[in-house]
Design goal:
CATH architecture of chain C: Orthogonal Bundle
Structural class of chain C: mainly alpha
Shape of chain C: globular
Oligomer: heterotrimer
Chains: A mainly alpha, B alpha/beta, C mainly alpha
Helix content of chain C: over 70%
Helix content of chain B: 25-40%
Distance between the termini of chain B: 45 Å
Low-confidence stretches of chain C: 1-9
Number of strands of chain C: 4
Strand order of the largest sheet of chain B: 6-7-8-3-9-10
CATH topology of chain C: ABC transporter involved in vitamin B12 uptake, BtuC
Order of helices and strands of chain B: EEEHEEHEHHHHEHEHEEHH
Low-confidence stretches of chain B: 252-256
Radius of gyration of chain B: 19 Å
Largest interface: A-C, 44 and 44 residues
Largest sheet of chain B: 6 strands, mixed
Distance between the termini of chain C: 36 Å
Largest sheet of chain C: 2 strands, antiparallel
Strand content of chain C: under 5%
């Protein structure tokens, strides 16, 4: 019984983690908490759905094009909304993303209406795996696998490519980065593009389980932030494990302590962890010199 | 006479020994220069005295009161003022208002009085503004009083930080590279200001600086740190001709 | 010493003072006359604006001055609303007393919330406060015997000294609280607490070196802002006469934060403007077919992109330009 809960929690946590990874990429490089991340992903997912349903493309083609759409969406948003705000107060940029959240949600509603659609998954009819006596759906395994692949790719990219290196430089110290020829706007655009891309993947993976409508991602967004904070927002692994932990904690508290208080209790756990470790479990403290 | 005693202070950051058994004292009314090559641990030592960093071993004592166990705010309240290498001023406020913040400790009205702006509050605020005005004229930057801090040249930011420390009723003043960004006449004036502070208030002053002429003219004594250890402590002339001091700055001295 | 001080003290331009004072006086007079010119719905909107302005004033102190992000102010607002309602309705206390007692209770909660938050910053602090908000909302929802749970509480008109407080009466009471609240906030901004909060926002190390106990002032900021939100909540409860836990959600906290930023973070005028924006603009957009949300969101983004200092920053810039 507890194994089932844990596996279920991991599966849910994985969904949060997908969004969380997108958030962390943007946050670490541009210092902006993107509250529109969920809605951006939702739009990308709807676009994929339209490619499959309206245009008739097969799953893999539609998803591949949609992911590129996600990348472009991220870059466009960065150029139009975020670029003018670089160098200004961070809270203004965050409120702008909140506005964007509303805009995207309304736009999606106008274009696609407020019905609920079923989003297909190529693994929907595959039999579940049996691991240690627990049934694990193929979707869940794919989610975890994709999550890990994204983290590995991002880590390799950031560490071993010139673009990745300039992104990290831009996030540490903008002045010095500029002096070394790194374009801050270009780094910001790449970061937002990557965030849009990863977010799109998240939406496409989430949609089969949660059904596609305009509110697909809104509940996930806060969970993604909460899990990210728990794990430590300046590390991809931190976000991943934090979100997984959050999913498991929710399931366990829901089953053993109280279903109605599950949400509240998981937040209490997060606050307790933060009291002891303000930077999150895997987070690193930013050292300031006096 | 009050005495600030640094007692065998050591600071370890992970595996790095930033300071190792540093011991010396600073009396009120004396000016001591703290010199040494980059990375010697000078700022770390100042941080220990200010209460920003806790020593791994040893203590900092002020006339018997152990400062190293206190928070930075408590240390400041005991009369230790600090001018930072990179002063953090409130960007949105003017020079005058930034200094007004430093009068915080001398104002003692409660929150409710503040909310109602009672006459006692108005009176204390006026007195604080007077103090700020006099510090501004002492430092010679009175005409920048209304300027926003954002447009202040670097050297003046240091002066402002000094002004903040002076408004705090201090007995000891720690200065971290105060003349960086100042031109020659401003450097001379700062020297005079510090000497004046010693004469008028009997302040004990500890100055971290790289400018040897400035430091040897100003200071009664020099303390030298190298790689976290104290390698010399004495009058400027003696210390500056000490072979160990020279080699720490210049590398190995070739055999003459 | 004093003679030097007279010469050196920064003179305040007398013209800008009298213009500002005249403008404030005019607004106040208009506000007092409002019930005679507005219909029932208009008066409701104005009362709501003033209630939100109270919340914004308190939140501005916490976020604009002390730099602490809070996503639980809707819960302080809600606890104030429920506390006032329960004390008036169930305990039978006079309305004004319940209002203040409820606010003091919420202030204590605000101070408690501040404690774990002392070491947190930015998004970490935001999520922690969000968590507190969720917990408080949940407690209100589950404590059915006291709060009526999900079904909410229906309220009868409040009374002051035996007279029933109708829409106009509540409006004037709100205006009175707002005026006092504005006065208090303005005084704090010119006093040692306001200045201490600004230093703490800029650098806790600098604050320490000035002998300022950052923890104490952060708790004070949380407490005072909770007080403002709670008074506003107690007024709100009797404006709408029906409260349920759903109204005091994370979404409302986010709206409160947006309100303060849109108006102009760190400015008192901004708190008023932000509240006006948040209440009046959606009303104006109500007629637009199909997409009031879309236009509002676009406006939000546009204001932030073109006026990062907020509406108040724009007003000041225009005033400076016309003064030349």
């Amino acid at each position: 019984m507890i194994a089932n809960l844990i596996v279920g929690g991991l599966a849910a946590g994985c969904l949060y983690a997908m969004v969380g990874i997108a958030i962390v990429i943007v946050l670490n490089i541009t210092d902006i908490a993107n509250f529109a991340q969920g809605e951006m992903a939702m739009v990308t997912t709807f676009f994929a759905y339209w490619l499959m349903d309206g245009v008739g493309l097969p799953w893999w083609q539609a998803v591949s094009i949609a992911i590129v759409f996600g990348l472009v969406q991220g870059i466009v948003i960065q150029q139009v909304v975020i670029r003018p705000l670089i160098g200004g107060p961070v809270l203004s940029a965050i409120i702008a993303t909140l506005g964007l959240n509303v805009v995207l949600n309304s736009l999606a509603g106008l274009i696609w209406g407020h019905q609920t659609y079923t989003f297909p998954s190529p693994f929907a009819f595959s039999p579940p795996f049996l691991i240690g006596g627990v049934h694990v759906s193929v979707d869940s395994v794919v989610n975890i696998a994709v999550g890990l692949v994204i983290i590995i790719c991002m880590t390799l990219f950031l560490r071993f490519t010139w673009t990745g290196l300039s992104l990290r430089a831009a996030s540490q110290n903008q002045t010095v980065a500029r002096l070394m020829g790194v374009s801050i706007t270009k780094s910001s655009a790449i970061a937002w593009g990557l965030g849009g891309l990863v977010g799109g993947i998240a939406g496409i993976l989430v949609a089969p389980s949660l059904f596609l409508d305009t509110n697909l991602m809104s509940a996930l967004l806060i969970k993604a932030f909460a899990g990210g904070v728990l794990g430590g927002l300046n590390s991809l692994i931190g976000v991943f494990f934090g979100c997984l932990a959050l999913g498991v904690a929710e399931n366990l508290t829901g089953a053993y302590l109280s279903p109605s208080f599950a949400d509240a209790i998981t937040f209490i756990i997060i606050i307790a962890v933060l009291t002891l470790r303000p930077e999150g479990i895997f987070g690193r403290v930013k050292v300031r010199k006096a | 006479m009050t005495r600030l005693v640094i007692e065998d202070v050591s600071v370890d950051f992970g595996g790095i020994h930033a300071l190792k058994d540093v011991a010396f004292s600073l009396e009120s009314g004396s000016i001591v220069g703290l010199i040494g090559p980059n990375g010697a641990g000078k700022s770390t030592l100042l941080n220990c005295i200010s209460g920003i960093t806790r020593p791994s071993r040893g203590r900092v004592q002020l006339d018997g009161t152990v400062l190293s166990a206190m928070s930075a705010a408590a240390v400041a309240r005991h009369g230790i003022g600090r001018v930072f290498q990179h002063p953090e001023l409130v960007a949105d406020l003017s020079v005058h208002d930034n200094l007004l913040i430093a009068c915080h400790r001398s104002l003692d009205y409660g929150l409710v009085s503040e909310l109602l702006r009672l006459p006692s509050v108005r009176q204390q605020e006026r007195a604080a503004a007077d103090k700020v005005a006099s510090v501004l004229s002492r430092l010679g930057i009175a005409d920048s009083a209304g300027t926003s801090v954002r447009s202040l040249p670097y050297g003046h930011r240091k002066l402002l930080d000094l002004g903040r420390a002076l408004l705090m009723d201090i007995r000891f003043l720690l200065l971290d590279e105060p003349i960086a960004g100042l031109n020659d006449s401003e450097i001379a004036r700062l020297g005079e200001i510090l000497l004046g502070l010693r004469k008028e208030f009997g302040l004990g002053i500890l100055v971290v600086e790289h400018n040897m002429p400035f430091v040897s003219r100003l200071c009664d004594r020099l303390v030298v740190l190298d790689l976290g250890q104290l390698i010399a402590n004495g009058p400027p002339a003696a210390v500056l001709s000490d072979a160990r001091v020279m080699s720490s700055y210049l590398g190995e001295v070739a055999d003459a | 010493m004093s003679a030097a001080a007279d010469i050196i003290r920064v003179p305040k331009a007398p013209t800008s003072w009298s213009w500002g004072a005249a403008l404030v006086g005019l607004c106040f007079l208009l506000a007092c006359a409002a019930p005679f010119g507005l219909n029932g719905y208009g008066l409701y909107l104005l009362t709501l604006t003033e209630i939100f302005a109270l919340v914004a004033l308190g939140l501005n102190l916490l976020t604009g001055y002390a730099g602490q992000i809070s996503l639980c102010h809707a819960s302080f607002f809600g606890v104030g609303a429920y506390a006032t309602a329960i004390l008036t309705q169930k305990a039978g206390l006079p309305y004004l007393l319940s209002l203040v007692a409820g606010a003091l209770f919420t202030t204590a909660i605000g101070a408690l919330v501040a404690l774990p938050a002392l070491r947190l910053k930015n998004i970490y602090l935001a999520i922690a406060t969000l968590g507190f908000g969720v917990v408080l909302q949940k407690i209100i929802f589950e404590w059915r015997s006291l709060t009526g749970g999900g079904g909410g509480l229906a309220l009868t008109a409040p009374q002051i000294a035996g007279y029933e407080l109708g829409a106009t009466g509540l409006y004037y009471l709100t205006l009175a609280f707002l005026t006092v609240g504005l006065f208090g906030a303005w005084n704090v901004s010119r006093g040692r607490t306001g200045r201490a909060l600004l230093v703490i926002k800029e650098s806790e190390i600098a604050a320490g070196s000035l002998g300022i106990n950052a923890a104490r002032y952060k708790v004070t900021a949380f407490a005072v802002s909770a007080f403002y939100a709670a008074i506003a909540g107690g007024l709100f409860a009797y404006l709408v006469r029906y409260i349920n836990p759903e109204s005091f959600s994370v979404g409302l906290s986010i709206s409160f934060l947006s309100m303060v930023v849109i108006g102009g973070l760190g400015t008192i005028g901004g708190s008023i403007l932000g509240a006006v924006f948040y209440v009046i603009v959606p009303e104006l957009l109500r007629g637009i077919k199909d997409a009031p949300g879309l236009v509002f969101g676009l406006l939000l983004v546009t204001v932030m992109v073109f006026m990062p200092q907020g509406l108040w920053g724009m007003v000041r810039r225009l005033a400076r330009r016309s003064a030349r």
